[in-house]
Amino acid sequence: MKIRNTRDGWGAGAQLLHWLIAAGIATAMLLGWIMVNLPNSATKFELYALHKSLGITILALVLLRIVWRWINMVPDMPGTLSPREQKLAGAGHMALYALMLLMPLSGYVLNSAANFPLNVFGLVQIPNLTPESETLAEVASVMHLTFFWVLAAVLVAHIGAALRHHFVLHDDVLRRMLPVRRR
Amino acid sequence: MFRSTSSSAGRFFLGLGLGVIASALPMLASSAATGWEIVHDESRLGFEATQQGGRFEGRFEDFRADMRFSADDLAMSRFDVTVATGSINTGSSQRDSNLPDAEWFDTDAFPEAYYVTREIRATTDGYEAVGDLTIRDNTHEVVLPFTWQTEGDRAEMNGAVTIDRVRFGVGQGEWRDPSVAGHEVKVVVDLTLER
Ligand code: HEM
Question: Which of A82, A131, A183, B37 is deepest in the core (most CB within 10 A)?
């Protein structure tokens, strides 16, 4: 498999970024959900720190991913898709890129507006994006939760579509994102 | 009246008298160590701490001190500092809303913290104050290294010392864990004083 994309498939770079970010986002969503529902405890605060560090790492990976997509060719959508399906898939992917950015960004703003320090995995402290503001922190908190629900809905559609292609339509759509031989 | 002592002898004795008083003044002052007033607009009683591994800064807006210091009379020099614990400000309303609570400073029960020196001594790079720090009725000895520069009637004092918040009972229960807030807190004193 090539590092870069080709006309009919995703290269190793794009696949690695896709699955790293997928695993990261799944973990961040789970962590976020668990931590906000825990009573105050050392574990809760450790999960917060982990969640924020992971979220910032995802943000960096997503930016890298967007740049990588920009400097690579984007494989054509399989011809088995109708124009309407191609449009729908394209819109869904755009929504995913937007949410992959908005999800961590709203978290970063939320943390910044609370004027909490943010040390990524105990390795490097990154600066806050905004001045301290209770109102902004509240708005960002609502956005963060809203994006979570929207992202969850789009992900259900995204994963559902991938599985349908693989198990119902028996085409190459899922395989194109896996390091396996094509049929 | 002075104007009537127009003779040269009169001026001579007046001059001599003032000269004697002037040369005696520093001796008088040093024997009690000079008293200094804090210029609050140019002074800061701050600290640096960590929250979830990230550094942040804060300060106490309201503190007062009886400061006596003379480099040549350290034996009579002494700091007696009182801090209003409720005046803590870390620039985060969320954080600051927790700090007066019973688990942190418990400002209702302990509105003030104190630092009273027992000894001030010279070191190779300046001075150090040996004193008792009392927070929440927990008293421990804290040695504060500092520098002191006097210029005319003004002075600058700069010092810093790291203390363990847990020894003073600040941040109890679930807040005791160092992953929530580090145990080490660096207290930073930057004062401008006038006499
Ligand atoms: C892809 C990245 C991220 C995902 C999927 C994600 C997901 C979540 C989820 C599901 C919650 C629980 C929402 C709730 O019930 O209120 C949450 C909460 C939270 N997240 Fe994130 N998050 C991400 C990135 C970040 C980042 C980068 C930060 C901070 C720098 C952050 C800070 C927070 C905070 C402080 C909360 C608590 C919410 C509140 O207090 O209102 N998140 N996150």
Answer: B37
